[in-house]
Design brief:
The chain has 894 residues and is α/β, with parallel strands linked by helices. It contains 30 helices and 22 strands.
Length: 894
């Protein structure tokens, strides 16, 4: 089994387990509660019990449970799984998608259309709503199926001691983790996931990675304690306790299960997460929807009152008023939005192995301008590398590395259970193994969590009767065993501290010579040592991190590093990757700031160190409050608050189940590779730019038509356009707009975060809608000349035909001139939008001349009209190009 990933340190508070539901095996002495609200059995006063008392309370023993007992407890306490996640059916997703504000607007319009007997409009709207909801439900259902496949890939087993009957000897067997029960005795080895909350009975050099619960980057040493004292600093600091979700980095141990399922601290952290607030997409959608609702509620009464006051018309103009409101509404919006997001999500899944679990999250990715992440596993890998070997005076000395390699090699070779840790691997990778083989191994005193060092005893073939002790370990523990005066020891400690501030981790190396002997060596022999020097290590940088950071900067995405590690370690990793860390902020400073002060600090600060889960969530919340759209990349239970606080939560495939289930985006193939996130952000912007382009073009064109309709309705003695003509015109425009889903944005449009900002959109559609209305009014003048000029015919059918043709031609121009896609010269052939605009223009020119024209009340137009229309369209195109150039020159991004 591959070694689990390591993460940042985060000394966060213990999760509140008061709300944890499910069965619990209650140890005597522990505070009890109603069955549905019991805390895990590893908490409370039970920590003061001895190991034997815990075994007796659990009605178990060192030999484990019998099969009969285990089966009975499984029935009583349930499987060792998290509370079942409630899956949403396809039908449930369909009904939930109807609550989308855009969809609700269309449903209201469809209902009003049905009330006024505009059945064609009502049917079209209903079809569009159904298509949109089906596409959205199908996309999210596929994402759920992909997540189910990921869950299948991480199914694990545990080594459990079970007996066939009371008198039988215990037999270790591989048992599915979900079959564990309180009282089971399990064995832990390197690479194993801790399958439940357990208490250690025996251990040998055991170190555990608790990153998923606490965020600690370094493994924590664990060992049994026969009679522990009161629990002062929380259970995670107790050496005799290991928790579900953590992983064994080195050593081995035997433990008894004390809590399973919903009663573990792992499950408790899940229950403490608060529901997420509205995302960037939700806020944008609600803002735009209310703009549309206000326009639509205002338009029909204005039409009715104006016609009643100026023309004496009554309710017979109600269908026309409804048609005007429908004409203002972008009917294809739900379909365009869902199609763009679904295509982007499908492309990410196929090409980059990214699962978008909530389709609107793809828009949020495109709007992200701040990406918050941890350090280990993202900017750095989960293994250290040797930077240099230093003598006592701080100079480079390869001899120090040679002795460190001797210690690493022989402590591994002579161990009862060879388990190399990451520090030994780093030393051996950097050193020449031949140097270690020049000595013969004699004995070893393995690493112990209390001593924090290890010793290898070797013999030089050329020196008979002399053994050399080679000691390597934590600086403080090694120096206190060396023959040094207080001044020199203090100097060396300050040297080590300065290197730590520079982001390096130091190990001390010392030696001592002893007369050869046959009796075993013990820790008591680690005295009177001669200090040799330091080994400086740092975390290995992720190979793709530097390039990905540059790519994110080119995309105008600011990276914030939220880590639980030492400030110097985090700052050095950032500098090595070309990311300026600036002034590093630590957690104690965050606690002193108000929310507005933190928002201002978060805007200016790149690295936050010593962060707890609550600090991470508060920083993300402060950034959102300051107007940023934030993404957060995390993979542990300790990251859940920040995942929920962000606009879009991102996690890798290797993340814990709860992080994957609560994330919006899952990186299924490449772990925490930042380059994959850059691809996902680009795909999100692709979809967002397309949606924004559709909205700008459609709403500005529709607003111009509505203004022209209202003006014409007041100036003309007849309706400016029949309801059937308005419906056909909308259908033609809607069909052409579908091609926006397949448009390819220009590279410049993807360089900045794209977010649907209602106020910016309102300013745009007001300005360009007014320009469109001017073109329509100019067309009215052209029609007046064509109708009343020489050879003109005074016929309302001619007016309807002329405006019908002009409307489709101007909308085709708007599609071409206001789109953000690549220009024709930059691509091979004509884009889908270009073909759609051409088809729309052809429809406007040919439909009045076709046999279908008279059925719609359309007819052929005078030649003079077409000549004058060319002039109007030319001026309109020039005005559009000028207005767009001024709009873009101000640096305004849709």
């Amino acid at each position: 089994m591959p070694r689990p990933r390591r993460y940042e340190r985060s000394a966060g508070p213990v999760p509140d387990t008061s709300a944890v539901e499910g069965p619990a095996f209650v140890v005597p002495g522990q505070p009890t509660a109603p069955p549905s609200r019991r805390a895990p059995a590893v908490g409370g006063a039970s920590q003061e019990l001895t190991s034997l008392q815990v075994l007796r309370a659990l009605d178990s023993g060192p030999r484990g449970l019998t099969d009969v007992e285990a089966d009975a407890r499984l029935v009583r306490f349930g499987e060792n799984t998290l509370p079942a996640r409630r899956t949403v059916s396809w039908g449930g997703r369909f009904l939930r998608s109807l609550r989308d504000p855009f969809t609700a607007v269309l449903l209201c319009l469809g209902l009003v259309s049905a009330v006024v007997a505009a059945w064609g409009t009502a049917c079209v709207i209903t079809v569009l709503v159904v298509v949109s909801c089906v596409l959205r439900s199908a996309g999210e259902h596929r994402a759920d199926q992909s997540m189910a496949g990921l869950r299948e890939l991480v199914t694990t087993t545990a080594t459990v001691l079970r007996r066939t009957d009371e008198d039988a000897a215990p037999v270790p067997r591989e048992t599915p983790v979900d079959q564990l029960v309180p009282g089971d005795v399990v064995r832990l080895g390197p690479g194993d996931l801790v399958p439940a909350d357990v208490r250690l009975l025996r251990s040998n050099g055991l170190s555990v990675d608790q990153a998923v619960l606490t965020g600690e980057s370094a493994p924590v040493s664990k060992h049994p304690v026969d009679a522990p004292g009161p629990l002062d600093n929380g259970p995670f600091d107790e050496p005799q306790l290991c928790f579900q979700g953590s992983s064994v980095m080195s050593g081995s141990g035997t433990a008894v299960v004390v809590a399973t399922g919903a009663c573990t601290w792992f499950a408790a952290a899940h229950h403490s997460v608060h529901p997420r607030g509205p995302s960037a997409f939700d806020r944008s959608v609600h803002g735009i929807s209310w703009i549309l609702i206000r326009f639509m509620l205002l338009t029909p009464p204005l039409v009715l009152m104006a016609n009643a006051a100026l023309r004496g018309r009554g309710l017979e103009t109600l269908p026309f008023a409804v048609a005007v409101a429908v004409g203002l509404t972008p009917e294809m919006l739900p379909v365009i939005v869902t199609t763009c997001l679904a295509r982007g999500a499908s492309l990410l899944a196929r090409v980059h192995g990214v699962i978008v679990r909530r389709l609107p999250a793809l828009h949020d990715l495109g709007a992200v301008d701040v990406l918050c992440l941890d350090k280990t596993g993202t900017l750095t890998q989960d293994r250290p590398v040797v930077v240099r070997a230093l003598s006592a005076d701080g100079r480079a000395d390869p001899e120090v590395l040679r002795w460190a390699a001797v210690n690493a090699w022989w402590t591994l070779q002579l161990a009862d259970l060879p388990v190399p840790d990451t520090l030994d691997e780093a030393v051996l990778d950097a050193a020449d193994e031949d140097g270690a083989l020049r000595h013969d191994g004699v004995a070893t005193v393995p690493f112990d969590p209390a001593r924090r060092l290890s010793t290898a005893v070797v013999r030089d073939p050329g020196r008979l009767g002399v053994h050399t002790l080679v000691v390597k370990g934590a600086v403080e523990n090694v120096l206190e065993r060396c023959l040094l005066d207080d001044v020199e020891r203090h100097r060396l400690l300050e040297l080590a501290a300065s290197r730590a501030d520079d982001g390096l981790r130091l190990l001390a190396v010392a030696t001592a010579e002893r007369p050869a002997r046959r009796r075993a060596y013990t820790p008591a022999d680690e005295r009177g040592l001669t200090f040799i020097g330091f080994i400086a290590l740092r975390e290995e940088l992720a190979p793709s991190a530097a390039a990905a950071l540059r790519a994110l900067a080119d995309r105008s995405v600011t990276v914030k590093v939220l880590t639980g590690d030492h400030p110097g370690t985090a700052a050095r990793a950032c500098r090595d990757l070309g990311l300026d860390p600036g002034d590093v902020c630590t957690a104690d400073r965050i606690d002193e700031l108000t929310d507005p002060e933190l928002a201002d600090l978060a805007h200016r600060t790149t690295v936050f160190a010593r962060c707890t889960p609550e600090h991470k969530a508060r920083i993300v919340t402060a950034l959102r409050a300051a107007g940023h759209t934030t993404g957060f990349l995390g993979d542990g239970v300790n990251d859940l608050p920040a995942l929920h606080a962000a606009d879009v939560g991102i996690c890798p495939r290797e993340a814990v189940d709860m992080a994957r289930e609560n994330a919006d985006v899952v990186l299924a193939d490449h772990g925490k590779d930042l380059s994959t996130i850059e691809h996902a952000i680009t795909a999100g912007r692709h979809s967002s730019v397309t949606i924004a382009t559709y909205l700008r073009i459609t709403l500005s064109s529709n607003l111009g038509n509505v203004i022209a309709m209202l003006s014409a309705g007041l100036l003309l003695p007849f309706l400016p356009m029949l309801p059937a003509q308005a419906l056909v015109q909308n259908l033609c425009f809607d069909a052409a707009q579908l091609t926006f889903s397949y448009d390819r944005p220009a590279p410049a449009a993807l360089e900045h975060p794209t977010m649907l900002r209602p106020r910016d959109l309102l300013r745009f559609i007001t300005a360009f809608g007014a320009l469109n209305a001017v073109a329509d009014l100019a067309t009215f003048a052209v029609l007046a000349v064509a109708l009343h000029g020489p050879g003109g015919t005074d016929d309302e059918a001619v007016f309807h035909s002329g405006w019908f043709t002009e409307n489709l031609l101007t909308q085709a121009l708007v599609m071409l001139l206001l789109r953000t896609g690549r220009r024709t010269a930059e691509t091979r052939g004509i884009s889908p939008v270009g073909w759609a605009a051409a088809a729309l223009a052809a429809t406007g020119l040919l439909l009045p001349l076709s046999p279908l024209g008279p059925r719609l009340g359309l007819m052929a137009l005078p030649s003079l009209y077409y000549l004058l229309l060319v002039v109007v369209l030319g001026l309109y195109a020039a005005g559009l190009a000028t207005a767009r150039h001024r709009y873009e020159s101000r640096g305004t991004h849709p």
